[in-house]
Amino acid sequence: MSISPSSRSLAELQRTIQTLQDHQRFNDAADLQRQIVQTHPQLITPRLQQAHLRLQAGDFDASARVLVEAAGVPDDDPSALIALARRLNFHGEIEPARRCIGRLERLRGTAHLHMAIAQLRWMTGEVDLAFEWVDRAYRAGLRGPDELHLHAMLCHFRGDTATAGRLLDECLGLAPEHGMAAQARANLYRQRMDSAHVTALQLRLKGLRARAEKSPAHALNIAQFEAALAKELDDLGNIPDAWEALSRSKSILRNLNPYDAEAESAITAHIIASLGQHVRPTAFRPGHEPGQPTPIFIVGMPRSGSTLLDRMISAHPEVAPAGEINDFLRQLHRLANVPPSGHAGMHRVLERLDRVDPAELGQRYLEQTAWRARGRKYFVDKLPINVQLVPLIRRALPHAPILHLVRDPMDVCFSNYRAMFGDVSPWCNDLTWVAHFHACYERIVEAWRRDYPAAMIEVSYADLVADPESVLRRLMHDCGLSFDDACLRPERNPFPVTTPSTAQVREPLNRRGVAGWRRYADYLEPLRRALETTPNRDAAS
C-alpha cells in the first residue's frame, strides 16, 4: 500500500491508520499517527494512540518513550491524564506517572475525580495519599459500593478496623451480593460468637446459588462469599464446616481459572537455564551507597511470612516498606523490549537476556523506586516471586540484601490454599496444584543455592517467630544495619500494610503460623502426598 500522508486530511489519515491496524501493520500505523501528534502537539490523547500502536507492534520500549514524552505535554484534560498515568505505570515509568497524578491533584474536580486520583495513588502503592483522596470523595457524597469497598480497605490497611467495618457494612447494605466486601469484612479481625456473620452469609449464599443457576456471572461472588464463610467458621473453631465452605469456594475458582502445570514447569526450566547461561555470579557487597537508598529484597513462596519480616525490618528508623512492588520485573521487560504478557512474555524476556545490561537494569530500578524510601537509607521490596530472578538481582544490585524466607511446606502450601486471590494465582485453588507450584519454587531455589551459594540470606520462619531477637540481630548485621528494639514489636509499626496478612501482623508476635495446618490434618492428606512426590522435579529436569 503506497501512502502519501502529507496530502491527506486528518479524517483520511485516521481511516488509513485504521486500515493499517486491521492488517496488523502497527508500525506503519504508528508512523502515520505521529503526523496527527505533530498536528496537535499540545494534546495527550493522540500520543496515547501512538504509544498503543507501538505496543501492538511489540515495541515496548518505543511505546514507553512516547508516553514519557506525552507526560511533558501541557494538556490538563483529566481523562487523558488518568489514562496516561495508568499506561506509564504499566510500562514501568512510575515517576512520570506520579507527576501526572500530581497534575490531576491540582485541578478543581468533582468527587469522581477525587476517586480517580485515589485509585491512581492506590495503583502506585501510596496508601496514605489514596486514603486522603477517597475520603474527600466520600465526604463529597460519592458512596457507591465499589467506592465504599476501596475506602474500607484503605482504612484497614492503615489500621482503622472500626471505620473499615462500618464502611463495609454500608457497602453490603447497598450491594448485599458484593463478594469482595463480604470477604474483606470477614478478614478484618478474628471473629467471635458475638461478631460473626455466619447466618447472614449462609442466607446470602442461598440466594446467590439460586440466581447462579440462571446466570453464571454470579460464580465469583459465590466463591468470595464461601471464602468469607470459611474464614468466620474457622475463627469460631468449626473446622468441618469451614473446610466444606473453603472446598466449595475453591471448586468454583478452579473452573473459572484453571492452572497450567505444564506451562509452569516449562517457565521454571527456562528461568534456570537462561539465568545460568547469561548471568555470571556476583558477590554480595553489603553496605549503603551514598546518594541513593538501598533496597532489601524479601523473596520466597507467597504466604511464607514475608509481611511479618517486612514489618519487623521496616520498624527500623532507617528503613521504609515499599510493599509488594514489581518494579524490578517491569524494568527487565523494558530493557528486553518485551511487553508483559504472562508466561509468553517471560519466555521472550529470557530469550533476550543477552540484550540486558545488568548495571543499567539496576540503575533504572533505583531511579523508579528511590521515592519509596521516603528519605530513609533503605527500603524493603517484598514481592515473593522475585525469587525467580535472584541471580539477576544480585548482578544488577550487588549491594542489595536478598532475604529468602523459608516456611514449612505444609504450612506455606495450606496457607496459600486458604487464601482468596480471586482471578489470579490459579495454582492456589487445588491442593495438588499448590504442591506443584511449590515444587517449581523449590527447584528454582535449589538451582540458586547450587550455582549462586552466597546470593541469598536464608531466614527460617519458624526460627523468626521462636527467637526473633537472635534472628533479627543476624539479619540487621548482614544488611549493614544496627539492631533496633523496635524491630521486635512489628505490631507498632505505623506504616500501612496492604497484604492479606494485614490483621495478623497488627497482633503481637505469636507462633500460630507454625504447624497451623495440623488443625486441618484430616483433610490435607492429598497435599502431604503431593508434596512428597513433587512431580515437577522429574517433569522439568
What can you see in these coordinates?
This protein has 541 residues and is mainly alpha-helical. Among the domains are: 176-256, no CATH class; 261-493 and 502-540, Rossmann fold (3-Layer(aba) Sandwich). The protein has 26 helices and 5 strands. Mean pLDDT is 93; it is low at 1-5 and 536-541.
Highlighted features:
single chain, mainly alpha, Rossmann fold, 26 helices, 5% strand, globular, disordered N terminus
Low-confidence stretches: 1-5, 536-541
Report on the biggest sheet. 5 strands, parallel
The helix-and-strand class reads mainly alpha
**What is the name of the CATH class of the domain at 261-493 and 502-540?**
Alpha Beta
The oligomeric state of the chains shown is: single chain
Residue share in helices? 55-70%
**Ends apart, CA distance between termini:** 49 Å
- Annotation field: number of helices: 26
CATH architecture annotation name of the domain at 261-493 and 502-540: 3-Layer(aba) Sandwich
Largest beta sheet: what is the strand line-up? 2-3-1-4-5
| Annotated CATH topology of the domain at 261-493 and 502-540 | Rossmann fold
Could you tell me the radius of gyration in angstroms?
24 Å
Inertia-based shape: globular
Quick description:
This protein has 541 residues and is mainly alpha-helical. The protein has 26 helices and 5 strands.
Write the layout of secondary structure elements.
Blueprint: H1 10-22, H2 26-39, H3 45-56, H4 60-70, H5 78-90, H6 94-105, H7 111-123, H8 127-139, H9 145-157, H10 161-174, H11 179-186, H12 198-212, H13 219-235, H14 239-256, H15 261-278, E1 294-300, H16 306-313, E2 319-323, H17 327-336, H18 342-351, H19 358-369, E3 378-381, H20 390-396, E4 402-406, H21 409-418, H22 431-451, E5 457-460, H23 461-466, H24 468-479, H25 525-533, H26 535-540
Parallel strand pairs: 1-3, 1-4, 2-3, 4-5
